[in-house]
Amino acid sequence: MKIFYAFIFLFTLSNTFSIAQERSEKEWKELKERQEYFAFQKDSTQKAKRLKFAKYVDAQDRQAPTEAQMERQLNYQVLLSRTDTTLKAIRISGAGYSELPQELFKHTEVEYLDLSRNKLTEEQLLTLTQFPKLKKLILDYNQLENLPKSFKKLKQLEYVSLVSNELDEKVKLHYISKVDTLYLSRNELHEVPRKIRRLKGLQKLMIKNNYLVDVRRIARLKKLTDLDVSFNPVFLSPYEFGKMAKLERLIANHANLKFIPKEITSISNLKMLSLAENQLTEIPSFIGDLDSLESLVLYKNQIAVIPSSLFKLQLNWLDLYHNQLKEVPSAISQLGELEILFLSHNQLEAIPETINELKQLKEFYVHHNQLRAFPAIDNLKELWIVRINNNQLSEFPESILSLEKLKELDLSSNMIGDLPVGIMEMHNLQSFRFNDNLVEKYTASHDEVEQLIQNLEQKGVEVTFE
């Protein structure tokens, strides 16, 4: 009997495990495909890039500093030797330094130091411990392969930027464990560095333009509020979203994403979501569950429909530029807090009249569509940019004349034949584009339009016509 119950227990356990395993395999299928594809290309890509960089470094080593760099070095040295030693911020960027100038080290009170665009390696940074009050350090575009252990002594260091170096996943990030902001973009990272878990106070991480597929280690950063993993072939694991409870801004542009996982709704504090230049074909209905969301950026995808649930949000920024939209629901009027709206480069033939209810709207972009008419927008008193160019409008939208705060108006590349005299009463207008319309030359209408254009130019408006 005991053997029988033991068998039942093992069978149940095995069945439960198989169900979990099936779900796991399904959700991680995309990750496996990406890893296999990436492994196939990884060696050749890495070798080619390192060869290219090696040639560049070798050429730089042989080449003496350019005349411009030598002049810049001289200027920096003179400046550093003459200025007060209580300087809080120093920038010596783009001078081609392969060693730090000695004049720098008398400024021990410095808190901000920019050493970008030089030829510095790990060895040249050992002496930075002479700046015990250093809070912000910028080392972009150098030749760093790692960080020196001496960085442990920089106890006040909060912000480090290491963009465009030679750092890989073995970089010793635990030497800067106190930082709250870290830039690792454009390096040689094929994995998220293991030591990143030691940065327990990290709040902002920019790690775009690398070769990352799996970003699960980032979920261990419990205080992270800002994350940018753009331009990586990333797989956003559904399981990890619940662990990033404090995340407020997530950017994963150009990351080959095909869907938005439902588990993203567990990030209750998410205010900004940018998934531009991916392969998304829809906005899922659960997007409306992101109660804190203020900015949604989805330009250059393949989205054809705006779900009604989106209008539950309190968005102030909505970017659906360059998708496949054919219609804008009238319910868009529910986005009462919206300030910036991008609907350009779609297939829209009309804009709903309810757009006139978005009274907080400041910027409206609807160019490069198929609009034959334009709705009244006279209630949108906060508008200061309106771009309706490259459509099929045959008449000037008269309601625009009542927009007192409007500074930029683009009606170019339409089919409009004349201009209303009332345009002269738009006193805040600074830029007006009206080229490539149907104003026929050598006609009375053309002469009237040309006179209005001249009057606008005399008022200081920058006008593009014909």
From TrEMBL:
User: Could you state one GO cellular component term attached to this entry?
Assistant: cytoplasm
- Signal peptide positions (record): 1-20
Q: What SUPFAM superfamilies does the record tag this protein with?
A: L domain-like
Keywords of this protein's UniProt record, alphabetized?
A: Leucine-rich repeat, Repeat, Signal
User: Which InterPro entries does the annotation name?
Assistant: Leu-rich_rpt, Leu-rich_rpt_typical-subtyp, LRR_dom_sf, LRR_domain-containing
Pfam families referenced in this protein's UniProt entry, alphabetically: LRR_1 (PF00560), LRR_8 (PF13855)
Name by which UniProt lists this protein: Leucine-rich repeat (LRR) protein
Taxonomy of origin reads: Bacteria, Pseudomonadati, Bacteroidota, Cytophagia, Cytophagales
